[in-house]
Amino acid sequence: MELKIYRDKQEVAEQFSAYFVEKANTGKPFHVALSGGSTPKIVFDVLAANFSDKMDWSKVHFYWGDERCVPPTDDESNYKMTVEHLFSKIDVPEANIHRIRGEEEPNTEAICYANLLEINLNEVEGTPQFDLVILGMGDDGHTASIFPHQINLWNAEDHCVVATHPESGQQRVSINGKVINAAKEVAFLVTGASKAKKVKAVVEKTEGSKEYPATLVDPKSGNLVWFLDEDAAADLD
Ligand code: 6PG
């Protein structure tokens, strides 16, 4: 596990974008699972503004580690956020965007389609392997859309599960722990003082941290990097 700590959200976004380009710009297809949330939003803006001419986007295939069960036009949609902050600003082939869909596309009301991973990735012992999985972490220690109250979903048989947000009850689709830990690289993007306690618990694996899904992120490849701002890293020893 590697910790990279930067001044603020903006610097996290700039440094992560440089890391992403270094990993993705190999001339070979690169399959990345994106995260929702506020930190990735800034990352996408920086990636599009500072790096779009340095990237051969035709080689990058975009997926989501989790998605809210809403139509792609809904403000809650992670897909919509990514279109607004990234896809609308770069030249990426439509075929490279693998949105999590329901069965009755398009524009269906809340669509949840567990078990859907339209991905032709190479597999590790039957588990799809992303080149990179980008994760956030909630104040409660959730990651992707695996929440503490449904931590059993982490070990679900299905690669893709349907979860429920503990407060809003919103249904979400999420990749499970096996898919996350099969990835060649996993990068956490965590910023803000509200995360500091959980970052300490998860990174230092303190007492009780096992209840937090973020603690279970432990890629077989050993390649786990945390991109943190100083506020989120404030409680680390
Ligand atoms: C989502 C994300 C979720 C997010 C965390 C952290 O769909 O909302 O996948 O897991 O990463 O809630 O969000 P912030 O980056 O906004 O703190």
TrEMBL record:
Glucosamine/galactosamine-6-phosphate isomerase domain: residues covered: 8-226
Catalyzed reactions per annotation: 6-phospho-D-glucono-1,5-lactone + H2O = 6-phospho-D-gluconate + H(+)
GO MF annotation list: 6-phosphogluconolactonase activity
SUPFAM superfamilies xref list: NagB/RpiA/CoA transferase-like (SSF100950)
Keyword Glycosyltransferase included in the entry's annotation: no
UniProt entry keywords in alphabetical sequence: Hydrolase
Pathways involved: Carbohydrate degradation; pentose phosphate pathway; D-ribulose 5-phosphate from D-glucose 6-phosphate (oxidative stage): step 2/3
Origin: domain of life: Bacteria
Hydrolase as UniProt keyword: yes
EC nos: 3.1.1.31
Signal peptide: none
Enzyme class name: hydrolase
Function comment: Hydrolysis of 6-phosphogluconolactone to 6-phosphogluconate.
Family according to the record: Belongs to the glucosamine/galactosamine-6-phosphate isomerase family. 6-phosphogluconolactonase subfamily.
Protein name: 6-phosphogluconolactonase
Source organism of this protein record: Flagellimonas iocasae
